[in-house]
Amino acid sequence: MHLEATSSTSAAATAEKATGVSLRAVTKKYGPVVAVQDISIDVAAGTYCCLLGPSGCGKTTTLRMIAGHEEITYGDVFIGGRRVNALPPVKRDTAMVFQSYALFPHKTVWDNVDFGLKMQRLDRQARRQRVGEILDIVGLSDFAQRKPDNLSGGQQQRVALARALVTRPQVLLLDEPLSALDETLRVRTRGELRRLQKQFGLTFIQVTHAQDEAFSLSDQIVVMGDGHVDQVGTPQRIFNRPASRFVANFMGDNNLFEGNVTQVEADGEVAIAQLEVPQLGKFTCQAEVAPDVGMEAAFCIRADRMQVTRRGELPEQTTNHLSARITAIEFTGYITRVALLAEATGQELLYKARTQDWLARDLQEGQVVELYWTTEAANFLSH
Ligand SMILES: Nc1ncnc2c1ncn2[C@@H]1O[C@H](COP(=O)(O)OP(=O)(O)OP(=O)(O)O)[C@@H](O)[C@H]1O
Fold first, then answer.
1. What distance in angstroms lies between residue 335's CA and the mean position of ligand 1's atoms?
2. Closest atom of ligand 1 relative to the 57 alpha carbon
3. What residue spans define the domains of the chain?
4. Which protein residue's CA is at the shortest distance from atom 22 of ligand 1?
5. Is 356 helix (H, G, I), strand (E, B) or coil?
6. CB 46: neighbour CB atoms within 10 A?
7. Which atom of ligand 1 is nearest to the CA of 36?
8. Whose CA is nearest to atom 6 of ligand 1?
9. pLDDT confidence bin for 2, thresholds 50/70/90
10. Residue 3: predicted pLDDT
11. Fewer CB atoms near the end CB (10 Å): N or C, the chain?
């Protein structure tokens, strides 16, 4: 897409209109099936938000309720502060980009993009200007007279985007818009989507099950699991400070330990919790909210935040450490992944290091090593 070649007037006009989306205690039931349960989300104007979660967790249903394609069972949806529950999709100032693109096969690219404007009953001259402008922005001016079947997947995706943007919505809703593209194109299109969102200053809400997509695109990620919202935060926060066992597991490469809270200390903005893990001893971790002493809870430590050393060579005053046996070493290129078993419990563990650093340690399969980490690197999980 040639985004530089945009019309600044239309982008500015849209940016002024940009608005936020709020869901309040929204539930969706399909007969006895509860697809989405009691979710509340605030997406500020101009935010790129991704709804991230495994298959069947309710992401698409949530998006469709915002768009107005799905009735809300309980709760309210607000767009720009206006309650839109009873409004049909066309009156919500949203536009949707579907996974399948849903283009008209018998219409040209130009007519596909023009269609929404015709529905809005814009006069011919205004339509011609807006369609020409948006095709230029997405780099499809030379393809205006082609039919969708004669375009590549990436080009079809751009037609779908152009068709959504040409109506100048306040909010763009995207349902897995990159899933039909191959890996290289997906990565390239990610960058283009992000640039487009920034350029127009619009609110984007996108459904994805791909973590890397959510990380690279979003200002805000809503992690969903089983119809609930599990955590909302920036990509960095979700990655570094998962709030729950579910999020820690979904992010992958996390080692989780179950125990009881034995001590809590406030440390400025955060709390330091000590947990006793059966057979492994006491460990300290960082907690966003001070937990109650005695409660059952867990903490996680990411595979790349641990350090490894030979037995007997543990640095002095290391609070968090355990012995583990190396069971497999997997070279993946830049990174080496090391599988281990905790000596005391047999729990499977994962350690990751830069291959260069790992090779310098000269450790072998079958060897017992010490894994250790700082309090700050370990993260308390309340649920
Ligand atoms: N029309 C329907 N009738 C009955 N159940 C439905 C209907 N649509 C969705 N569901 C159910 O609601 C739940 C949430 O579905 P939804 O499509 O929102 O999930 P999702 O997170 O978008 O999944 P995916 O990534 O696979 O698209 C699932 O259990 C699904 O089977």
1. 36
2. 21
3. 3-240, 245-381
4. 60
5. helix
6. 17
7. 14
8. 30
9. very low
10. 36
11. C
The H or E element spanning position 258 is: strand 254-267
Q: Hey, what amino acid is at 177?
A: P
Residue nearest atom 17 in ligand 1 by C-alpha distance: 60
- CA dist 266 and 268 (Å) reads 6
pLDDT exceeds cutoff 60 at 17? no
pLDDT-derived band of residue 112, with 50, 70 and 90 as boundaries? Answer: very high
Q: Which CATH number fits domain 245-381: 2.40.50.100, 3.40.50.300, 3.40.190.10, 3.40.50.2300?
A: 2.40.50.100
Give the pLDDT confidence score for residue 237 in this predicted structure. Answer: 94
User: pLDDT value at position 181?
Assistant: 77
Contacts of 348 (CB under 8 A, 6+ apart): 339, 340, 341
The CA angle 239-244-246, to the nearest 5 degrees, is 85
Measured from the Cβ of residue 260, the count of other Cβ atoms closer than 10 Å reads 14
Whether 100 shows a pLDDT value over 80: the answer reads: no
Count of helix runs (H) and strand runs (E) in the chain: 10, 20
Query: Which range is least confidently modeled, 139-143, 176-180, 238-242, 260-264?
Result: 176-180
Tell me the pLDDT tens digit for each residue of 252-276.
Answer: 999 999 999 999 998 778 899 999 9
3-240 under CATH 3.40.50.300, yes or no: yes
Side-by-side strand order, sheet with 368-373? 307-310, 368-373, 320-331, 335-342, 348-354
Q: What is the pLDDT of residue 280?
A: 96
Contacts of 165 (CB under 8 A, 6+ apart): 95, 134, 137, 138, 172, 196, 200
Residue with tokens 């330990």: 257
Task: Classify residue 145 by burial, with Cβ atoms within 10 Å: 0-12, 13-18, 19+.
Answer: exposed
Residues with CB under 6 A from ligand 1: 30, 33, 35, 53, 55-61, 209
Ligand 1 centroid distance, CA of 57 (Å): 7
Report pLDDT for 167. 87
- Residue whose CB lies within 8 A of the most ligand 1 atoms, among 23, 30, 211, 229, for a mutation test: 30
Task: Select from 356, 341, 357, 378 the least CA-distant residue to 309.
Answer: 357
Report how far ligand 1's centroid is from the alpha carbon of 35 (Å).
6
DSSP assignment of 134-176:
HHHHTT-GGGTTS-GGGS-HHHHHHHHHHHHHTT--SEEEEES
